[in-house]
Amino acid sequence: MTPSPEFSNWATSPSLRLVALKETLTNGFFSGVSLMPLFPHISDTGENLEFMFQTFKDIGI
């Protein structure tokens, strides 16, 4: 999933955030995810949510 620039011009990319999250888990830190905000009809599609949930499961969340 690629972020739309109009929503997050200065934010770290989701892929880099996932790398950091995986590293914190690997190093024994308690870590979690908050899905906010979900934009109606933009980021809350079934396909996007399934992708996110599977990705989190794959890295151990």
From TrEMBL:
It comes from the Bacteria. This is Uncharacterized protein.
